[in-house]
Amino acid sequence: MNLFSETLAWLSDPANWAGPSGIPTRLGQHLAITAIAVLLAAVISLPAGVLIGHTRRGAGFVGGLTGAARALPTLGVLTLLGLAFGIGLAAPLLALIVLAIPSLLAGAYAGVQSVDPTLPSAARAIGLSPTQVILRVEVPLALPILVGGIRAATLQVVSTATLAAYTADFGLGRYLFAGLKTRDYPQMLGGTILVIALTLALDVVLACCQRAAQRVRDPGGTSGSKKLSDATNHDRTNTVQHLHLRRKGSTP
Q1: What phi and psi, each to the nearest 5 degrees, are found at residue 126?
Q2: Which one Pfam family would you cite for this protein (predicted)?
Q3: Which of 16, 54, 109, 229 could join 49 via S-S bond, C-beta 3.0 to 4.6 A?
Q4: How many Å apart are CA 208 and CA 223, to the nearest integer?
Q5: How do residues 91-121 score in pLDDT, each as one tens digit?
Q6: Contact 149, 108 (CB under 8 A)
């Protein structure tokens, strides 16, 4: 029996689908730590990225920070945090948060910065406050890129969350570490297949969310930026014509 048939037998074994170490339990743990890491990273990075994109200040800081964070070896960070916090989920969770921040920060910054500067100016001209400009104009128009950043961060975290088993008995990574320790290669390959399948499934779901965000921003196939720009140009033309008629009427 070769490795692939043994792996298929391991995946189809009912004993591996039940109990506290069963595949559904490990899958739920893997999804839970992924969701928590991305959520906490989003709380930190999305407001900062939106603010930097809105003010057009700090672009160099964002580029340097994201580049430096992406260059960090996740396993090395996890080892250092494991030495600091000991056995448990604290170390892998913090390492995954550090991993997720660059993509989320870059997505928020790039999305808001990509908005046509004339649109926030027009919104301020009609009396919207800075907060309203961000929430009603910039964020809706930047939504597809924002979701793209969330998608990239989620895929990075879910594929790296196997390292949570390095300091804790948690997630699908446990199959890899346990199989490596006991030389149970079908178990290792089975765990790898499960991680790949979960990553691909999340990618499909988030790709659909990104397309939905694009449709929300561009209903009917016309971009919101173009619509608002056309409306602004139309209003400007009407104003010029109105002033011209008033001037003509006041001329004796």
Answers
A1: -95, 10
A2: BPD_transp_1
A3: 109
A4: 18
A5: 999 999 999 998 999 899 989 988 888 888 8
A6: yes
Q: Are 169 and 175 in contact (CB under 8 A)?
A: no
Q: Which two tokens stand for residue 118?
A: 């004339």
pLDDT in tens, 113-129: 888 888 888 888 888 88
* Nearest partner of 138 among 228, 63, 201, 203, judged by Cα: 228
Phi, psi of 153 (to 5 degrees): -65, -40
Give residues with Cβ within 8 angstroms of 117, minimum separation 6.
Answer: none
Is the Cβ–Cβ distance between 164 and 170 less than 8 Å?
yes
pLDDT computed for residue 163 by the predictor: 87
Enclosing H/E stretch for 152: helix 139-160
**Whole-Å CA distances, 106 to 59, 94, 161, 184, 193:** 10, 19, 21, 40, 30
58 in the Ramachandran plot: left (φ > 0), alpha (ψ -120 to 50) or beta?
Answer: left
Contact 142, 112 (CB under 8 A): yes
* Residues 108, 158, 100, 69, CA torsion sign: negative
Please say if the pLDDT value at position 192 is more than 60: yes
Which residues, in sequence order, are CB contacts of 16 under 8 Å at separation 6+?
10, 22, 23, 190
Q: What is the largest CA-CA distance in the chain?
A: 103
Residue 127 backbone class (left: φ over 0; alpha: ψ -120 to 50; beta: rest): left
> What DSSP designation does 136 have?
I
The 10 Å Cβ neighbour count of residue 86 is 10
Report the candidate in 189, 45, 16, 168 with the shortest Cα–Cα distance to residue 111.
45
DSSP secondary structure string for all residues of 161-195: GGGGGGTSS-STHHHHHHHHHHT-HHHHHHHHHHH
Residue type, 181: K
